[in-house]
Every structure is written in structure tokens, then in C-alpha cells.
What we know:
This protein is α+β, with helices and mostly antiparallel strands.
Amino acid sequence: MIFNLPKEIIFPPVELAEPNGILAVGGDLSVERLIAAYRQGIFPWFSEGSPILWWSPDPRFILYPGEVKISKSMRQLLRRSVFSITYDQAFGDVIRGCRSRRKAQDGTWITDDMEDAYIELHGLGCAHSVEVWHKGALAGGLYGVSIGRMFFGESMFTYVSNASKAALITLCVKLQSLGFDCIDCQVYTKHLSSMGGRSISRDAFMSLISSSLKHKTIQGNWGAIEKFSAALN
């Protein structure tokens, strides 16, 4: 049974989600509702022209920061400092990059309302971007939401080969240093699996969230520049 959300910011228990992971439909994309959803292991995912759909799949696909796989060729690339990395310096450009890539493939779930909502979350210091630069231009990146010691990854893109991998690897190094529990990757992809992602049960994921929420959210701009050579030592 898929639940129709009321105007109040209330979600049904995640255990009531459909086998495919859909839990509820409707509501809005206010920052209050989005934060409440993430805290309960729920995320929005829908196509242009459809109602808002809320998901809590079982199993859940995650990546522990300390388990990220870095290939020999990728490690060599990073150490050559081909890319430079920043945080929260071009959030709008990153989300639009993710959106344009999806449109070029098979449509996008990053609608105008989604873009506006996450930019507002970024303004509150709860959504963050990782930017990868090559020869002064944005080459790729990713964005997501940080609550407690969990990073809920939303999307990534690349204009230059390996740029999105560089973003994810550098993010993992940073999150590991900050004591984060894991990156929520939501659902399985071959790409993320090759980089160390794994599936865990919804119950195990909810336990991770419960533990993570005992820590204060690190809000604000994460903007320090990262140097790969230092990050990989």
C-alpha cells in the first residue's frame, strides 16, 4: 500500500514500503519535510510530470568511507594533481550539471522544484557539493545532504573522464576524517559497486541512522580546498 501524505510533515513507518521501495506519494519538497524524510531513512525520487514519490528500499546501498576502492591507475591520476577539489563553492552549478547529464541520458528526476529545494538546503548548511576542477573549468562533482554523521548522496556527474570518481574518493577521505558512518547511495549501481558500495538490510541502515543522529550535524560551508597528494597519504 502506497500512502498519500497529509499536509502535516508525517511519514508512515518505513517497514510499510512496497517491495520495490516506494513508501508514499504527495506532500511537498519543503526543507522541513526533506530533513524529516532523511532522518527516517526516506528520500524523494520521481520523474518530471509525476507526483512526488518517497522511497525507502530494502536492501539499501551504501558506501563506508573507509572502504572506498581506489584503483592503481586512479591513485596515480590523483597524485599527479590533474584535478583540484573544492567543497560548496559551486553548488548550483553541480546540481545543474547532474541535471543536464540525466536529461542527456533518459530524462531527469531533478525537477525545477527539486533543484530549488536542495539549493535552499545548501543555504541552510545541510546540503553540500564536491566540485572537481580541470584547467579552471568544472569537470565534475556530486552533491548530497549531511545530517548527523550520515551523508545522503543524491547525484554525481562528470564532463571529464574520472572527475566524478575523484569527487567521491576525496569525499570519502574527508568524511572518514570527520568520523562519518557511511554514505547513503540509495540503490545499487554497477559504478558505485566497483568503488566499494555494498547492500545492507533496511534494518541495518536504520540502525546506522539512529547511531549517526546522536551526533550534531556539521552545518555550514565545507569549502576548504583539498589536495589529492595530502588526502591520499
